[in-house]
Fold this sequence. Notes:
Layout: E1 17-21, E2 29-35, E3 38-47, H1 52-56, E4 63-70, H2 89-103, H3 108-111, E5 115-124, H4 129-151, E6 163-171, E7 174-177, H5 181-186, E8 189-196, E9 201-208, H6 215-240
Parallel strand pairs: 4-5
Antiparallel strand pairs: 1-2, 2-3, 3-5, 6-7, 6-8, 8-9
Amino acid sequence: MGETRKDGRGAKEMRPLVFHPGVAPQALASVLVSFGKTQVICAVSVEEDVPGWMKAQRVSGGWLTAEYSMLPYSTTTRKKRSNNGKPDGRAVEIQRLIGRSLRAVVDLETLGERTVWVDCDVLQADGGTRTASISGAAVALQLAFRRMMQEGTLASNPMRQLVSAVSVGKVNGEALLDLCYEEDSAAEVDMNVALTERGEYVELQGSGEESTFTPEELAQMLELAHGGAQQILAAQRAVLGD
């Protein structure tokens, strides 16, 4: 057995999970998601059009995309909003991950000729902002599609299943679930895992930080990720009333 972590959790425990819907009334749907001290607002908007590249290539159906940003006050030292009007490389990489994770569980044909935007804005960062964003965005997206069905703009729900994401890592030689910033910054191995409701992988992002990891350690971390995904899924279903 590993030692108790500084916040009192065991190695297999998530931080407290909270999904609070309706925080941005102007959006089609929104959720404030908290993984411990990490807080992200995920909001959904819909545009009744598709990107130009879809028209040019005659691609049928709709499109779903995401944007991610860390608000200036989300970290201990102020973070610039942009770099000459453009998001930094990290933000671009994360928003692409969020978009891929959501598109993996959405039927774009059922969506119709429209674009769904999911904005993820980090209010407070304490590790796991990308995983919280994916998990919260899935809830906001489901709420948005339900509203569109109620309003008659969608005949059926394009969302085939939920998706979630969680971080795992090796810290001081021990595999841990859902790393806070202090653990993440000290980790020998850091990994983000996006999983569908059925337990299928959407994406694995993992690397050794001046370290390596064995196949056995990888299997252990993936087992932790699956356990964490089940905890997230239970919280997602609870707020959605499923």
